[in-house]
Design goal:
Layout lengths: L1 E2 L4 E4 L3 H5 L9 H12 L11 H33 L6 H44 L6 H17 L2 H26 L5 H5 L2 E3 L5 E3 L11 H7 L1 H4 L19 H26 L7 H5 L5 H10 L4 H32 L18 H22 L4 H34 L12 H19 L3 H23 L5 E2 L2 H15 L1
Parallel strand pairs: 2-5
Antiparallel strand pairs: 1-2, 3-4
Length: 499
């Protein structure tokens, strides 16, 4: 079946095609909340703190507020679109309905970069924690990466119910660890002495102020803007929730509640960690600006080194929660694009017993591992997990920012093109909130380009985009399948044209 206006062609598969691609429904509000918070929570354990080097404490705080505004605009938009278009495709599905097959594919591709590479970033942080706890030689880090991928792929493959139960438990434990840290840190904090211990050296780089009491904004407004890409790590991946739409018991009711509750939880946690972690004696913002284990350093400052193994294992929980939940999202994201024919359709086959997209999850994990190993061997093992994590983080944020821009634009177009579709939830921020999301995402991208680690990573992203777009142009667009996302988009396009 040709669709000449979009330059694509479809085939309508028989029932057996979808019989091999069945998902099962399990998730309620709290499962969805845990999926959203769990995906992000590692960003409160590691990664965000690199922003102190570019903005100081005040720069990090204001950058976090700006990014929180961007994510509020995004999540309210998603909370409206997801129950209106309750398909596993999520970002690709929204953009497909709003902007046609090419818009859907490009948006899905941006999100694919994010969800394949974010677990890779997190596993470098997990490995850094484990190396620190057990005193292992970092040269063996790739072996630990593989072990963690195998363990959490297995948990995701062998049953949806198991996966969501693990997600809920480990997310609650992670938040409990953070609350325990806040309660421990408050009596020991010395904000002015330690959080404000960053000054500007002659070369414009951050230097440590031995007595603290420095400026809130040592790098000025430009420092705040340069810190935006790091502040993203405090909320990155909350937008994955709609990928669970076809595994949610009642997505029209539960999806908006889950994503809004998740965002409120994360904003509270982000403020507390940015305030307390650098305010502890012996830690400080300057040390945290290059630390791979900021929360572990915070625990050590309060409790000393005597219980370092126990404290380290406690501090690992958030990283493990995010690694587990983003592997889930990665599988559903690849599954949805494959089921519709944008990626090879073999990737969307689900497990005959457990009804999980195991082929998609394993493939995504292998790609993520391959990228990590290429960077590891090209930069040299001596570069360390910090450099590799930073390169991967930039790649993941790059993909995420583009997907946010495309999703916000999709929201605006759907409001205008399809004003009458059923919307169980309407964004209180409306089109202005989506416009603000686009503006902040664009500014974040512009400042991300100035990070020297950006160019190392972005070349790989561009290469992946080039290969995937070439595949779709020459092969994929002629083999699209009438999946639920595609049928919904085409039906409403016809309805809009009749109006």
């Amino acid at each position: 079946m040709e669709n000449s206006s979009s330059g694509v062609s479809y085939k309508k598969p028989d029932a057996s095609y979808f019989d091999k691609r069945v998902l099962s429904r399990y998730a309620g509000v709290w499962s969805l909340w845990a999926l959203g918070v769990g995906a992000v929570i590692s960003g409160h354990f590691s990664g965000w703190n690199f922003g102190f080097a570019t903005g100081g404490w005040g720069g990090m705080l204001v950058a976090g507020i700006i990014i929180a505004i961007m994510y509020l605009g995004l999540t309210f938009s998603i909370a409206e679109m997801s129950p209106a278009l309750p398909h596993t495709g999520a970002a690709y599905s929204f953009a497909r309905t709003a902007m046609g097959p090419w818009g859907g594919f490009i948006t899905g591709l941006c999100e694919n970069v994010e969800y394949v590479l974010t677990p890779a970033v997190i596993v470098t942080f997990i490995t850094a924690y484990v190396n620190s706890i057990l005193g292992l030689d970092p040269a063996y880090s790739p072996l630990l990466w593989i072990v963690f991928y195998i363990i959490f792929l297995a948990l995701n493959v062998f049953g949806l119910e198991l996966s969501f139960k693990v997600t809920l438990v480990i997310t609650v434990v992670s938040l409990a660890v953070l609350v325990f840290f806040w309660v421990s840190a408050i009596p020991n904090m010395d904000f002015s002495r330690w959080a404000l211990n960053i000054g500007v050296g002659p070369d414009g780089a951050a230097v440590e102020l031995p007595e603290g009491n420095g400026s809130w904004f040592p790098f000025g407004i430009s420092g705040v803007l340069a810190t935006l890409p790091f502040a993203v790590w405090l909320f990155l991946a909350i937008e994955q929730l709609p990928l669970a739409a076809e595994e949610s018991v009642d997505p029209k009711r539960d999806m908006p509640k889950g994503i809004i509750l998740g965002m409120i939880t994360l904003m509270l946690s982000a403020f507390m960690i940015v305030l307390l972690n650098p305010s502890l004696p012996g830690v400080g913002a300057f040390h945290l600006s290059s630390a791979l284990e900021p929360l572990l350093d915070g625990f050590k400052a309060v409790y000393g080194d005597s219980g370092v193994v126990v404290l380290g294992l406690v501090a690992l929980t958030g990283l493990i929660a995010s690694f587990h939940t983003i592997l889930y999202a990665q599988g559903r994201q690849i599954y949805s694009l494959s089921r519709a024919g944008y990626f090879p359709t073999a990737l969307s086959i689900t497990h005959p017993v457990y009804k999980t997209p195991y082929v998609a999850m394993i493939t995504g994990a292998l790609v993520g591992l391959a990228v990590m190993l290429v960077i590891w061997f090209s930069l040299g093992a001596e570069a360390g997990g910090g450099v590799i994590g930073s390169v991967l983080l930039n790649m993941a944020v790059f993909g995420a920012m583009f997907s946010y821009i495309m999703q916000a634009i999709s929201f605006i177009i759907l409001r205008k093109k399809l004003p009458d579709i059923e919307r169980p939830f309407r964004s209180p921020l409306g089109i202005p909130g989506a416009v603000l999301t686009v503006i902040i995402a664009v500014v974040t991208l512009l400042y991300q380009i100035q990070d020297p680690n950006f160019t190392k990573g972005v070349l790989w992203v561009v290469l992946w985009f080039a290969i995937a777009i070439a595949y779709f142009a020459f092969v994929g667009r002629h083999r699209l399948i009438l999946s639920p996302e595609e049928e919904f988009a085409m039906e409403h396009k016809r309805a809009a044209s009749l109006d």
